[in-house]
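Exercise 7.
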Amino acid sequence: MEPVPGVLVEAADDEPRVRRFVWCFLGAFVLAYVTLYNLPFPLAHVPGQAKGDWLQWLPAATKAWTEWEHAATHWFGANLLGLADVKPIEQTGSGDTLYDYVSAATKAAIAGLLAVVWCALDRRGRSQPTAHALVRIYARYALAATMLGYGFHKVFPLQFGALDDERLFSTYGNSSPMFLVWTFMAASPAYTIFGGAMEALGGALLFFRRTTTLGALVSVGVMTNVAMLNYCYDVPVKLYSTHLLAMAVFLLAKDVPRLVRVLLLNRATTPAVLRRRMPVVLLVVVLACKATVVGYLTWSAFSSSQKMWQQTRDPGQRKPLQGIWEVTEFTHELSPAPADASVRAWQRLTFSRWDFAQVTRKDDSKQYWRTAVDAAAKQVTLSQAGGQAATPIVLTYEEKAEDAAGAPPDATPGAAASGSPKPTTHRELRLQGELDGAKLSVTLRLREPNSFPIHARGFRWVQSYPFNSNQ
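Solution. The predicted structure, written as tokens, is:
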């Protein structure tokens, strides 16, 4: 039996058509999703939005987009996923909330619909190269701004805080995986600065066509490490870091065949076309606009982190009693004395920079207070933390400093002039007042962070034996 030519021809024609549609859909979906995910960037970065400025209407536009995004996410979650109440949770520090996942799914669904419409209207795919070029530029700047922001927040070691106060007494077993990462990074500001410099480098290279491939390679390496830390140590920025990594891969995908030829096959490759020819006047305008945008995004990321860093280093920002105070004498005249008086005695009192105090007892139980220090009246007020109503405790305090020999600092005449080493200075604190209806008297000594091995060890080129200890 002879084959039916019409059927074969129709099948042969349909296969390329379906294949073209699939590739068109995938390409359009990626472009649409990248755009939707990054909006409303760069509106929040545009200057002149304060009240009375010429762009004072811009925050309203940003708010309108955010409200539409919330409404779309809520509708999608309620009607298609069966989730009754999907709403953003403000200021938790987590990027992996249920709302974040539903929001990503909503944007993916919208991107899928836009891709279908796009491919139906543009069957020959003539508009996709132009759209890809525009979205690629948009993704470059969005990722670069993010990498610079995170990078400078590490170049000035801010993100992980300082390894001081009560963090120095935390144990591995009682630490969450995320806390362990934060402690690990805070322990070495130099390593934190290096990691931030690599993030900022990747972001800066993405601003320019000629260095985009290198910037994408750096960003892929950096963000792969960040994403793996988030996944392996349960840091709730997994969704966001994965998107940043995917954007870096998206920017690198165009040059993967060329990189494979050079790096793996050891073959020559053709250079990429970086910029189409344009009139000189237009080129000057484009370069001027580019310099303005790149300069502003870089400076805003740098200056905001640098300003925060200066504030943390300002001695005037230090609280009057901030630090770790170890108890040397403790008297609490409760009558009758409780059976567990010996283990309920205070072992340590830590005043943080955030107006909180933590008491650690000898049985390792803890109690937290909000603090208000009146340096003029020499009084500290402790109020119950955690929203529990309780009568505030007012204690008077007295500070004194003495050297290791028990004398006040610099009490020896001519000590400074003789050039002899300055003796170690101890700071002592005495608290007095009432707690639980009984007289309280506590004497404490300040424990400097540099007295802990993790700070005191320092760096050594030559080591006969490894110093691997948690003592």
